[in-house]
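1st attempt posting a full record on here, be nice pls
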Amino acid sequence: MERFTIILIITIVAILESLSHANLKYVYNTKKNSYFLISVILYAIICYLLYIVYHYKTLASATALWSGMSIILALFLGWKLFNEHLTPADYIGIILIVIGIYFITFEGLHAIQTEE
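the predicted structure (as tokens):
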């Protein structure tokens, strides 16, 4: 599987996770507990996609990439959907995460494993 495809799948995982978290925050705020199932379904999809990714990428590098993207997306969704404010430290953290994602994805020691 090509590097771009793996990064795309991990990006989709991060988006789904962020949407799941935003949905849980919505459930908490509105007390509409029937929407809770949406987050469960999203996490089932996330598990399946990660199962595919782990065949080609190490646990450490896939998790670092996924976590970094999820943090950035969660900050963005919190800001846009729930009017949460970003601090200067948040912006510095985002910059450091982006730098880390670059090194892990393109320069890291955890190269994509070849299919055998």
